Fold this sequence. Notes:
Elements: E1 18-22, E2 25-31, E3 38-46, E4 49-53, H1 60-73, E5 81-85, H2 91-94, H3 97-104, E6 108-111, H4 114-122, H5 128-137, H6 142-152, E7 163-165, E8 170-173, E9 176-182, E10 191-195, E11 200-204, H7 225-235, E12 243-246, H8 255-277, H9 284-291, H10 298-317, E13 321-326, E14 328-333
Parallel strand pairs: 4-5, 5-6, 6-7, 11-12
Antiparallel strand pairs: 1-2, 2-3, 3-4, 8-9, 9-10, 10-11, 13-14
Helix pairs in contact: 5-6, 8-10, 9-10
Amino acid sequence: xxxxxxxxxxxxxxxxxxxxxxxxxxxxxxxxPLPLRFVSVYLVRGGDGWTLIxxxxxxxxxxxxxxxxxxxxxxxxxxxxxxxVVTHFHPDHLGAARQxxxxxxxxxxxxxxxxxxxxxxxxxxxxxxRFVGSLVRHGMDRSLAEKAAAGTRANLSLPEExxxxxxxxELPLGDGSASVIHAPGHADYQLVLHDEERSILYAADHVLLxxxxxxxxxxxxxxxxxxxxxxxxxxxxxxxxxxxxxxHGPVFHDLDGRIDELxxxxxxxxxxxxxxxRDGPKTPYTVSTEVFRGDLTLYExxxxxxxxxxxxxxxxxxxxxxxxxNGTVTYSVT
Length: 334
């Protein structure tokens, strides 16, 4: 979804390179082996050292880009890093945190509820069987589900210590501070950082331009991710933000305008799914194939199904659809 909110001229550097986006704030675009191509992380210079916001994916190109990018802005990763903040548990944001922590000796922090959640998903989770069962129950063919689980679920080595951050807490950042805001939806315990003095929002994957964040219902998800996402967006209105620094896609300035576009997108998506159900009961997988058209990879099909589930659940909350389960889940209009 593109919409009318314009991209900033800031942060236009190629993948793998770093650029200053505010005084003492640098965006580094780290490559990722995913369709998104890169994740944006941020290096913020402060009197007590550098704050790194997000870590990137755990593979060699990430570390090569970190070394080159940090060196270019005068940050020695072995001695100058004061803290590492990870916005959420997804591997393109958390994956490299362990190695960065070992290299720098800096503490790694996440939202307090994200810590046990991340460890549960990546270290002590039930394995692929639960994921396969969920895909099949929602209408995907078992052989396809098993192939999907083998390709999308993996173990991730987390830092030995993860330090908790709490919503409303003030985190030292640059020569000032930023408020920690719980921003659920894309991830249940995602955080964003609001630097009120400088009118900057470090938006992680909560508010993106050109694309919409994936709001999905996964086996490990807290119920009602779309309802919680839309509610969280509303709490960000009128923050007086002048600069939005996202985890993916272009930097931009019109936060409230983008919130309007995202809310409208999900309203349209809900209406489209409701219309499909008028033809009769459908499995979530069937709905996903009719809404998300095109030549999707198996990885993308899983994300399409998760997003479809979040929207169908929202239709159920709105009493516009009914969920039925008899071995396989179907939804129908009420």
